[in-house]
Amino acid sequence: MAGHHIVAKPLLEIGEKNLKKAKEKGLINSYYVFHAGDDLELLMVHEKGEDNPEIHKTAWNAFLEATERAKSLKLYGAGQDILKQAFSGNVRGMGPGYAEMEIEERVSEPIVIFAADKASSSAFNFPMFRIFADPSNTAGLVIDPTMGGGFKFEVLDTKENKKVVVKCPEEMYELIALIGTTQRYTVSRVWRASDDMVCATTSTTKLSLIAGKYVGKDDPVAIVRAQHGLPAVGEALAPFMHSYFVEGWMRGSHWGPLMPVGLKDSRTTVFDGPPRMVALGLQICDGGIASDGDEPMISDLFCDPAFDMARREAQENAAALRYMGEFEPARLPAETLEYTTLPLVLEKLKSRFKKA
Ligand code: F6R
Ligand code: MG
Fold it and tell me: pLDDT tens across 28-65, in order?
C-alpha cells in the first residue's frame, strides 16, 4: 500500500482464492501466491503444457479481480499492468509478465523461481550468463562432465522482435556482446546443449513496447532447474552474493543496484527501491510442488545472512548513485528513458538555441 511498494493482503487473498479454485477443478496441481514488491506473483504447476488458454485465463481472471478490489480500495497503481481488456487465450502482449517451462519430471526435480521488482526484463541477463556459462561461478562447468557440452541461450531482440540461439562456451563472446546490451537483448531460454534439455526460462514482456509509453517496469520472473547435470541450487544463487546493476528503480528511469531479499523484505521503499529480487526453492513431485499436506514446501532462499553482503553493497551503491541525482550514469541514457521530460524541455528551449 501507499504507492508502488507492496501488494495488499486482500489482493494476495484474491490470487489465493482463484488458484485454489483452479486446483479444485483439477486444472492445476499446485500453486503458490506471493509478491515481489508491488507485483502479485502466481506460481502454478500443471500438466497442460505451455501457452494453455485455460491456464492463462486463470491468471488473467485473478489479475482482473485483484484490479477491481484494488480500485475499490483506491489503492495506487491499480491494474497498472493490465494494458488490454479483450482476452484472447493468452496473456502475451496483455501486460502481465510470465515465464513457463514444460519439463519431463526427473527422479528428483529441484527448481528455483526468481522474481524481481523495479527492474527491466533483461535483469536476468547477467545472472543467467554467470549460472550457465561462467566457470568462475558454476564449478560444475569444469567439474561435472555431464555439463561439459555447455549450454545454449535463446536471446530475444526486443526491438526487432527476433530471436537467435547462441552456444556456449564456443560463442561466449558473441553471447556477451548481445546480452551485455541489456536495453535491447534479453535471455529468454537456456537448454543443456548435449541433449537440448530446457533448464531456464525468463519473462520477456517489455511493458513500454506494448504500451508505447511508460506504464511501469517489466518486473521479470525466471524459472531455473537445478542439480544432477545442471548447475546446483547453490550455483544458481551464487551470482547474487554480490549486488549488480539493473535498469528500473524510480520511474523506471534509473540504474539501480539489485538487492536479493527474503519474502519479508520484498518491499520497495527508498527511491521506490532499490530493485529487489526474491528466490523460492521447491521440488516438483508427481506433477505438483512437493507438499506437506496441502502446504507446498517452499524455501525462501534469499532469507539468509549469506546474502547480507549483497544487501549491504546494494545499499552503498544505491547511496552512491543517488548522490549523482539526475546526472548520468545514475539516470538512464536519454534514448532509454521511458518517462523522459527531455523532449518537453527541448521544445520549450527550441527558439533559444543559437548556432554555436
Ligand atoms: C517504477 C514505479 C514507480 C513509479 C513512481 C512514480 O516501476 O512503478 O517508481 O514510477 O512511483 O509513479 P507515478 O508517476 O504514478 O506517481
Ligand atoms: Mg512492480
Answer: 999 999 999 999 999 999 999 999 999 999 999 999 99
| 220 within domain boundaries | yes
Encode pLDDT of 10-28 as tens digits: 999 999 999 999 999 999 9
Q: Where are the beta strands (DSSP E) in 185-294?
A: 185-192, 197-202, 221-225, 245-248, 254-257, 259-260, 276-285, 288-289, 291-292
Which residues form the domain of 268?
Answer: 101-340
The answer to whether position 93 is within a domain reads no
What number does the ligand 1 atom closest to the CA of 3 have? 11
The grid cell for 331 is 539516470
- Ligand 2 centroid from CA 149, angstroms: 37
**Stated pTM of the model:** 0.96
Is 151 contained in some domain? yes
Closest alpha carbon to 278 in 262, 264, 267, 297: 262
Helix (H, G, I), strand (E, B) or coil at 300: strand
CA dihedral (267, 112, 166, 150) in degrees, to 10, reads: 140
Number of folded domains in the chain? 1
CB atoms within 5 A of ion ligand 2 belong to: 38-39, 117, 219
Residue 6 maps to a domain: no
